[in-house]
Design goal:
Growth Hormone, Chain: A, MFS_dom, transmembrane helix, single chain, 418 residues, MFS_trans_sf
Amino acid sequence: MVAWGFWDWGSAAFNAVILTFVFSVYLTDAVGDERPEASSALGFAVGIAGLVIALLAPVIGQQADSAGRRKLSTLVWTGLTVLATVGLFFVRDDYSYLWLGLGLLAAGSVFVELAQVSYNAMLSQVSSAQNMGRVSGFGWSMGYFGGIVLLLLVYVGLIAGEGGALGASTEDGFNIRLVALVAAAWFLVSAIPMWVAVPEIPPDPQRPQRLGVAGAYRKLFADLRSIYRHNPHTVYFLLASALFRDGLAAVFTFGAVLAVSVYGIGAADVLIFGIAANVVSAAGALTGGRLEDRVGPKPVIVGSLVGMLVVGVVLLFATGPTMFWIFGLALTLFVGPAQSSSRTFVNRLAEPGREGELFGLYATTGRAVSFLAPSLFGLFTGLFASERAGMIGILLVLAAGLVALWPVQPPRHAAAKA
């Protein structure tokens, strides 16, 4: 379990440091010279990466299942993520390097998400029906903690002031480029325990291992029809989770913006709040995992969504930094359990040996509606000329996910797993 969880710890190097907080900002603000077209290009690059993930994820998961190569698949895509991250070191602070940086960032986004498909499917290999919630919660909390530790290390060592405590040169963005090398090494080293300690699944002798791309998609569509006929609630959950996961992602995407513009949090304090939020989310994931093993994943997800909606409504009317610290952290308390239990719900829904395929569909459905919460945030912000009103859009997406989830019941084989 610990060896498996260290992959989550390491993946934060790309998700938190490269994609969210450090390198994407470097690309748009420094390399892109704060030009509007640089931010627009970043949006297109991430959007194209999302489309590629949506198309490839189900097939990658299916092939890893049938060939008995989930661990190998995870590590191959992890290795490609590391290589893409290393490549970012060569992106100098010059506009001519923007497209190289965007291409590597988009490629890394694809690679890390495809690695996540097989990694999530391995949950059934490192847990039992009795402790799956705790194991998933542990892994998810490791991701939060890994992001916190690495962000603090690179900020203090290489970013704060002029080149951080190590006094790295800032010429041509050298200190930020060094962050990319640190992140790559962090992810690579963190993946080693999984490679050494986690067992691989055997190949399925009843399923063809070499279908080709066209054959894999034909089989995928046939399997989808079969899933819907025999276990329609699996499809219902994929659709419901796509909605509420988009809302969960929007909480972190727009949280920093709202903290500064609506509640008066100082720009310098946003990072501190972000660290606190990740600690609280990790604690929530650990607690939710233990609770899930007693009551099942659906009550944990429902309770988390209800909690987020209640706190979100309070935040609509709250004012001032103190209220945001109290209720903002309360909101993040429910994010970790919802994310972790959603992962275990998919694992319990999947037929034995086909977890990777279902996690591929999980990734695809999530990408299919990833525009919804950001679009509604922008719509309500524009309609009321208020960023506070944009929160209504996020709450509506979370509420829609809760409504869609309410009637979902696990199929018979999932009940047997539990």
